[in-house]
Amino acid sequence: MKQKFFTVAPMMDWTDRYCRSLHRILSRRARLYTEMVTTGAVIHGPRERLLGFDGAEHPVAVQLGGSDPRELAEAARICADFGYDEINLNVGCPSDRVQNGRFGACLMQEPGLVGECVAAMKAAVSLPVTVKCRIGVDDQDTEEALNRLTDAVVAAGVDELTVHARKAWLQGLSPKENRDIPPLDYPRVYRLKQARPDLPIAVNGGIKTMEEVHGHLRHVDGAMLGRVAYHEPEILLSVDRELFGEEPPVADAFEAIEAYEPYVAARLAEGVRLHAMTRHMLGLFTGRPGARAYRRHLATEGVKPTADLQTLRDAVALVSRETVQVPDRELAAVG
Q: Backbone dihedral region of 271: left (phi > 0), alpha (psi from -120 to 50 degrees) or beta?
C-alpha cells in the first residue's frame, strides 16, 4: 500500500520562501511548493532571487512553467543543482499570460507535448518529475481529456500527478473565477485513480478541512490544499498528527511565531522588510480574541521601513491566549 501524502499548493504571489519557511514550522511532513517560475526566468533570470530557499524548507518542490522540452530540461537541471526535491510541471494555470506563453492549462489540449516535456526532464535529472493539471479545459470531455494527458505522462515516466478537480475555462473567466466557478468533480479524479492504481495521484481544489482531506484519501493517494492553507495556516498543525501519527513541531500559533523569530531576525539583518514575512502570517490566530487587532497592527505598523522584530512581538501581544473561540469574519477580506 502506497504511503499517503499531503502538499501545499504552489500559489503565485503567496508561496514564496518566507511563506514556505513559516509553513514548515507548522508541519514537518507537508510537501511545499514554490510559486510557478517560467523556464525563461530560470535560465536567464536572477536565479538566486528566484530559486534560493532555506534548507529547513525540505521537502520542497519547484514548479516550472513552460512547454519547450529542451528549455524545461535545462531549467530542471538548474533547479536540481539548487537542491530541490521535486520538479513539477504546471499544466493547470489558466491566466492569459500563461496561455500567451503556451503553457499552463492550455497544455491540456496538447497531451503529446506534455509527455515530451516530462520525458525531457526525466532524462535531465534524477529527481521525481510530477505534473499538476486540470480535469480538462473549455469544451473538452473530461473523461477523454484527463485520460489522454495521463496516458502521455505515464508513458514518459511521470512520478506523480496532482489533479485540480475542475475544468479551466481559457476564455471568459479570470484566473480567480477559474478557482471557483467551474464545478468540482472529485469523482472524476477518483475514477482516474481506479484506472491507474500504480500511479500516485493527489486531488486539489476546494478542500477546506482535514475532515475533507481524510475523505479524499479514501480514494486517492494525496491531497493538496491551496487557499485555506494560506488564509488559515494553523490547519497545517493538524497534518503531522492526523495523517502521519506524529506530533507537530509546535503546539500552536504562539509557539510557531516564537520558532519563526530567528528566521525573521536573520532576514531583517539581510535587509528584507518585515512585511515580506508578516504578510503571510495574517491568518494566524483565527477565532481568538485579539486576532483582528493583531492583523491591524501588522497591516499598519508592519509595513513601515522601520518595522522590526519588536513590531511582530507587539502584534502578538494583542492576541489573547485564552482558548475561547469567537467569530472572526474579516479574515477573507484581509488575505
A: left
| Vertex 237: Cα angle to 334 and 239 (nearest 5) | 115
Domain boundaries, the chain: 5-242, 253-334
Q: Is the pTM of this model over 0.85?
A: yes
Helix (H) / strand (E) containing 115: helix 111-124
Residue 106 designated active-site:
no
pLDDT band at 326 (very low <50, low <70, confident <90, very high): very low
Stretch among 92-101, 102-111, 273-282, 303-312 having the lowest mean pLDDT: 92-101
Task: Kindly name the residue from 19, 93, 106, 117 that is annotated as catalytic.
Answer: 93
Q: What CATH class is the domain 5-242?
A: alpha beta
Phi-psi domain of 290 (left: phi exceeds 0; alpha: psi -120 through 50; beta: other): left
Compute the Cα dihedral for 129, 135, 139, 144 and give only its sign. positive
Strand partners, 36: 63
Alpha-carbon gap, residue 292 to 150, rounded angstroms: 45
DSSP result, 277-307: HHTT-TTTTTTSTTHHHHHHHHHHTTTSTT-
Helix (H/G/I), strand (E/B), else coil: 186: helix
Can you point out the beta strands (E) in the chain?
5-8, 32-38, 60-65, 86-91, 129-137, 160-168, 201-204, 222-225
Q: Is 72 helix (H, G, I), strand (E, B) or coil?
A: helix
